[in-house]
């Protein structure tokens, strides 16, 4: 009798405090006020209302309004808010100078940027929600004493469910009955070997080790049973890990850290220059409000307002391209983070391999046979094929007109092998099964056939061979002598060295004896079967591309070291004679420093590792300064996925907890898709630098007019509103077109960029601020003075703000900057390659149709600003004569020619620097 106090309910969870594994089945049912026939429908409905649905609830995160608000208060935005406030303040003290329009324009910039960034991130999250697959969709549950198929969400504590091989466990359950039930705990523990489950009471220390518990998210791979649900939804082990994962903090990706750093750099630079020139204006005796307008202009000219939306949209476009490569990005910065990866830690099963067991080799009658079997060997192999065909615990299901089997993939492979036997072999009626368990390491089935009753047996060779007294040979069945035993042991070692999992198959005739385990003796050895989970065909090429790209690939698997080494060699991951293979047992005895030294090996593999050990490896690599991408599919992989610089979850075989912790989900579970995504990630970083160069180049021609205005007695050549027209109007679409550039074919032949490399590097700044920018400034100021000269203006003569000549001259300066930016757009397609090579088939615009659209929009916008009444009114311009446009062309052509000369010099220098290496020096 159970002590009622031990069954006192926990009101918070709604289930008994008592450890349910310690109870016998009858008392377990009583503890949850259930029966062997399950709950009534009415009681189940009442409990569902009390305990909720059986699903993993998403922890309530940051409210959407707060996520949106955050987009308007980052450092970049704060600088613009300051500039807008200064503009409104200037308008208040000196109305009619257009400062209110400027302030409103800057506020509009902030709102557009923030809303756009928020919307892209929100869309990425919603795309991930469409992928979510929580728990098994349908379960068989006893309700009102009858077996019923229900949605898994409808389960409540106290329900009795039927579990068969191939089923996923829908909730935490206590076994009531079991017949040969084996469960894979891989999603929780990472252990691929199925565990036997029995209904007897247990004193195990925790749920994972209790042999009478079935935990949500695990899979029954053999046998069947009846189980009592005692925990659902977030109260399951699955749910607890999900809660921990969701409440963990997310670090910044490399790109996020870099953009934050870059934004602060540019904003501080803009403010510093603005303050410096405000003080300079005061020293020169400029009026206070005029000087304030000047300072605001300096700040606005040096803050690249289009940078953040350009980065966001470039990342969003990359996510769309990567989705077509079967890689779903959950967080936008993860796109570029993968491109920065220096190490990929990958699972084996399902990622490097097909996760489909296949028989590769047989050893029958002293002969090794590769598949497919030669027709002249089928008859000799018949006894082995019969054992493979009949000795299993699979479940046949009908899928339309097709009959398939569910259960242990290894048994599926054996049945497929056995089907090569003749179809007229006669009907075999199974009358008994001796189930597999980890102690016996074998299973047997007894069948009635036309020729009599036979026992078929399969198991580990080292277990089955001692039970055999005879063996199949070329001359028929012969007594098994020591020489034959040694040949079988040698054949087993040869198969294992190939990375094959080896099973021995045997049979015997059964007379009228009672069916008992002792019948598994005096067996006839039918042969050995070597089974493999074959590598994906595209993986060797993907590994080769990783090696060429300077990315180290490390396999972390729960499989045997010999199997891991053989697969690694087959896919090209290991090429040396003596790779470093570290087992889970070895890893337990390594200190942090010893592990980091071990990771210095050119080729290193980890076998028989657990999830917490995978996390140790990731952390050790990060301490070495590596940018780590890690793959995972189980609940137990979530910590490593969360800790990695980019976590990659499996979309087919992965759990929801793994997907929730990951930055990217592989829709096809294929390692080759990771490599394609790396290429896209590298392209994103390169493209960001391209449009960063493009955007920053226009800062100099926007700044120089203000310097000339202070230093020289001339009208202001470019107004603040015209600066915004460049940064947020004409420049936006061309910058986005650069963000959509295809990956450079050479990008996977270069090592990853150094972790310390900044987006805003000195070579980039020098090219933008000291080369391209001054050329554009020269064109803008030249056109400004040229138009003034055509109008008869004399140096030193003031011009009213609304004078037609002044409006025409400022419009010419603005138009010249835009035309120069068109040339700059073509020059920025590559920092070193010729304009003709960066296109396709000699076409400078080839390979990226968005460039053409960007240029067309850029020219149409400037035409609208110069020639339409609305554009002239908003931006303070006037119509230009055709000669002004013709005068801009030599400057644009000059920029392109000078850029070609600079790129040619860069290429020659690069070849000269690489020559000693190429010569073997």
From TrEMBL:
<feature type="transmembrane region" description="Helical">
    <location>
        <begin position="72"/>
        <end position="92"/>
    </location>
</feature>
<keyword id="KW-0067">ATP-binding</keyword>
<dbReference type="GO" id="GO:0019829">
    <property type="term" value="F:ATPase-coupled monoatomic cation transmembrane transporter activity"/>
</dbReference>
<dbReference type="InterPro" id="IPR008250">
    <property type="entry name" value="ATPase_P-typ_transduc_dom_A_sf"/>
</dbReference>
<dbReference type="Pfam" id="PF00690">
    <property type="entry name" value="Cation_ATPase_N"/>
</dbReference>
<dbReference type="GO" id="GO:0005886">
    <property type="term" value="C:plasma membrane"/>
</dbReference>
<dbReference type="InterPro" id="IPR036412">
    <property type="entry name" value="HAD-like_sf"/>
</dbReference>
<dbReference type="InterPro" id="IPR001757">
    <property type="entry name" value="P_typ_ATPase"/>
</dbReference>
<keyword id="KW-1003">Cell membrane</keyword>
<dbReference type="Pfam" id="PF13246">
    <property type="entry name" value="Cation_ATPase"/>
</dbReference>
<dbReference type="InterPro" id="IPR023214">
    <property type="entry name" value="HAD_sf"/>
</dbReference>
<dbReference type="GO" id="GO:1902600">
    <property type="term" value="P:proton transmembrane transport"/>
</dbReference>
<dbReference type="Pfam" id="PF08282">
    <property type="entry name" value="Hydrolase_3"/>
</dbReference>
<feature type="transmembrane region" description="Helical">
    <location>
        <begin position="98"/>
        <end position="119"/>
    </location>
</feature>
<dbReference type="GO" id="GO:0005524">
    <property type="term" value="F:ATP binding"/>
</dbReference>
<dbReference type="InterPro" id="IPR023299">
    <property type="entry name" value="ATPase_P-typ_cyto_dom_N"/>
</dbReference>
<dbReference type="GO" id="GO:0015662">
    <property type="term" value="F:P-type ion transporter activity"/>
</dbReference>
<dbReference type="InterPro" id="IPR044492">
    <property type="entry name" value="P_typ_ATPase_HD_dom"/>
</dbReference>
<feature type="transmembrane region" description="Helical">
    <location>
        <begin position="266"/>
        <end position="286"/>
    </location>
</feature>
<feature type="transmembrane region" description="Helical">
    <location>
        <begin position="805"/>
        <end position="828"/>
    </location>
</feature>
<keyword id="KW-1278">Translocase</keyword>
<feature type="transmembrane region" description="Helical">
    <location>
        <begin position="292"/>
        <end position="316"/>
    </location>
</feature>
<dbReference type="InterPro" id="IPR023298">
    <property type="entry name" value="ATPase_P-typ_TM_dom_sf"/>
</dbReference>
<dbReference type="InterPro" id="IPR018303">
    <property type="entry name" value="ATPase_P-typ_P_site"/>
</dbReference>
<dbReference type="InterPro" id="IPR050510">
    <property type="entry name" value="Cation_transp_ATPase_P-type"/>
</dbReference>
<feature type="transmembrane region" description="Helical">
    <location>
        <begin position="882"/>
        <end position="901"/>
    </location>
</feature>
<keyword id="KW-0547">Nucleotide-binding</keyword>
<dbReference type="GO" id="GO:0016887">
    <property type="term" value="F:ATP hydrolysis activity"/>
</dbReference>
<dbReference type="InterPro" id="IPR006068">
    <property type="entry name" value="ATPase_P-typ_cation-transptr_C"/>
</dbReference>
<protein>
    <submittedName>
        <fullName>Plasma-membrane calcium-translocating P-type ATPase</fullName>
    </submittedName>
</protein>
<keyword id="KW-0472">Membrane</keyword>
<feature type="transmembrane region" description="Helical">
    <location>
        <begin position="720"/>
        <end position="740"/>
    </location>
</feature>
<comment type="similarity">
    <text>Belongs to the cation transport ATPase (P-type) (TC 3.A.3) family. Type IIA subfamily.</text>
</comment>
<keyword id="KW-1133">Transmembrane helix</keyword>
<feature type="domain" description="Cation-transporting P-type ATPase N-terminal">
    <location>
        <begin position="19"/>
        <end position="92"/>
    </location>
</feature>
<feature type="transmembrane region" description="Helical">
    <location>
        <begin position="849"/>
        <end position="870"/>
    </location>
</feature>
<dbReference type="InterPro" id="IPR059000">
    <property type="entry name" value="ATPase_P-type_domA"/>
</dbReference>
<feature type="transmembrane region" description="Helical">
    <location>
        <begin position="691"/>
        <end position="714"/>
    </location>
</feature>
<dbReference type="InterPro" id="IPR004014">
    <property type="entry name" value="ATPase_P-typ_cation-transptr_N"/>
</dbReference>
<dbReference type="Pfam" id="PF00122">
    <property type="entry name" value="E1-E2_ATPase"/>
</dbReference>
<feature type="transmembrane region" description="Helical">
    <location>
        <begin position="768"/>
        <end position="793"/>
    </location>
</feature>
<keyword id="KW-0812">Transmembrane</keyword>
């Amino acid at each position: 009798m159970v002590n009622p106090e031990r069954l006192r309910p926990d009101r918070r969870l709604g289930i008994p405090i008592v450890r349910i594994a310690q109870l016998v089945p009858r008392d377990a049912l009583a503890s949850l006020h259930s029966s062997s026939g399950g709950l009534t429908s009415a009681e189940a409905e009442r409990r569902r209302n009390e305990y909720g649905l059986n699903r993993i609830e998403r922890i309530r995160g940051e409210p959407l309004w707060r996520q949106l608000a955050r987009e308007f208060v980052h450092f970049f935005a704060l600088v613009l808010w300051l500039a807008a406030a200064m503009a409104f303040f200037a308008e208040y003290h000196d109305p009619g100078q257009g400062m209110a329009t400027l302030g409103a324009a800057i506020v509009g910039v902030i709102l557009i940027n923030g809303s756009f960034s928020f919307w892209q991130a929100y869309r990425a999250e919603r795309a991930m929600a469409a992928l979510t697959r929580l728990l098994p969709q349908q379960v068989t549950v006893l309700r009102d004493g009858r077996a019923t198929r229900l949605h898994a969400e409808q389960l409540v504590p106290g329900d009795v469910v039927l579990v068969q091989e191939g089923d996923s466990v829908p909730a935490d359950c206590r076994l009531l009955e079991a017949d040969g039930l084996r469960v894979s705990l891989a999603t929780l523990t990472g252990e691929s070997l199925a565990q036997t489950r029995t209904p007897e009471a247990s004193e195990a220390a925790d749920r994972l080790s209790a042999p009478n518990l079935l935990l949500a998210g695990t899979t029954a791979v053999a046998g069947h049973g009846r189980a009592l649900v005692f925990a659902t939804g977030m109260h399951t082990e699955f749910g607890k890990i999900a809660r921990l994962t969701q409440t963990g903090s997310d670090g910044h990706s490399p790109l996020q850290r870099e953009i934050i750093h870059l934004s602060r750099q540019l904003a501080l630079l803009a403010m510093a220059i603005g303050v410096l020139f405000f003080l300079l204006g005061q020293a020169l005796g400029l009026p206070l409000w005029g000087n304030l307008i000047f300072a605001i202009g300096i700040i606005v000219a040096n803050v690249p307002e289009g940078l953040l939306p350009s980065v966001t949209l470039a990342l969003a476009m990359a996510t769309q391209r990567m989705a077509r490569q079967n890689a779903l990005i959950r967080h936008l910065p993860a796109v570029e983070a993968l491109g920065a990866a220096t190490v990929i830690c990958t699972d084996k099963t399902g990622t490097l391999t097909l996760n489909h067991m296949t028989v590769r080799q047989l050893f029958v009658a002293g002969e090794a046979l590769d598949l497919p079997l030669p027709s002249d060997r089928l008859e000799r192999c018949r006894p082995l094929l019969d054992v493979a065909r009949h000795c299993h615990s699979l479940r046949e299901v009908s899928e339309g007109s097709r009959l398939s089997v569910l259960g242990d993939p290894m048994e599926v492979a054996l049945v497929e092998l056995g089907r090569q036997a003749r179809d007229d072999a006669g009907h075999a009626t199974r009358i008994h099964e001796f189930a597999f368990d980890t102690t016996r390491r074998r299973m047997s089935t007894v069948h009635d056939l036309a020729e009599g009753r036979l026992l078929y047996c399969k198991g580990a060779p080292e277990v089955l061979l001692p039970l055999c007294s005879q063996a199949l040979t070329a001359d028929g069945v012969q007594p098994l002598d020591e020489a034959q035993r040694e040949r079988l042991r040698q054949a087993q070692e040869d198969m294992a060295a190939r990375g094959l999992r080896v099973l021995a198959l045997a049979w015997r005739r059964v007379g009228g004896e009672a069916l008992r385990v002792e019948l598994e003796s005096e067996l006839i050895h039918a042969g050995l079967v070597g089974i493999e989970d074959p590598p994906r065909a595209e993986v060797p090429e993907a590994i080769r591309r990783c090696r060429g790209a300077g990315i180290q690939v490390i396999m972390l698997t729960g499989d045997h070291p010999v199997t891991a080494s053989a697969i690694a060699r087959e896919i090209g991951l290991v090429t040396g004679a003596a790779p470093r293979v570290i087992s889970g047992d070895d890893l337990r005895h390594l200190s942090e420093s010893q592990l980091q030294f071990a990771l210095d090996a050119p080729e290193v593999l980890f076998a028989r590792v657990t999830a917490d050990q995978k996390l140790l490896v990731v952390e050790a690599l990060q301490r070495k300064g590596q940018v780590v991408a890690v793959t995972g599919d189980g609940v137990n992989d979530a910590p490593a996925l969360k800790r990695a610089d980019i976590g990659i979850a499996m979309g087919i075989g992965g759990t929801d907890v793994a997907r929730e912790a990951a930055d990217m989900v592989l829709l096809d579970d294929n390692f080759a898709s990771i490599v394609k995504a790396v290429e896209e990630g590298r392209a994103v970083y390169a493209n960001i630098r391209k449009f960063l160069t493009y955007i920053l180049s226009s800062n100099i021609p926007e700044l120089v007019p203000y310097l000339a205005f202070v230093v020289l007695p001339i009208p202001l050549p470019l107004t603040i509103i015209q600066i915004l027209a460049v940064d947020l109007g004409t420049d936006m679409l061309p910058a986005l077109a650069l963000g959509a550039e295809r990956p450079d074919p050479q990008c996977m032949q270069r090592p990853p960029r150094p972790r310390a490399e900044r987006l805003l590097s000195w070579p980039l700044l020098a090219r933008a601020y000291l080369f391209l920018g001054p050329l554009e400034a020269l064109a803008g100021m030249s056109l400004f003075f040229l138009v003034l000269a055509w109008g008869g203006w004399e140096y030193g003569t003031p011009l009213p703000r609304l004078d037609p000549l002044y409006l025409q001259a400022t419009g010419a300066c603005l138009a010249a900057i835009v035309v120069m930016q068109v040339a700059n757009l073509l020059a920025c397609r590559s920092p070193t390659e010729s304009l003709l090579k960066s296109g396709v088939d000699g076409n400078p615009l080839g390979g990226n149709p968005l460039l053409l659209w960007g240029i067309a929009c850029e020219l149409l916008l400037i035409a609208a600003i110069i020639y339409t009444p609305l554009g002239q009114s908003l931006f303070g311009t006037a119509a230009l004569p055709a000669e002004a446009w013709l005068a801009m062309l030599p400057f644009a052509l000059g920029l392109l020619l000078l850029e070609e000369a600079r790129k040619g010099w860069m290429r020659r220098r690069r070849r000269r620097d690489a020559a000693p290496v190429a010569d073997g020096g």
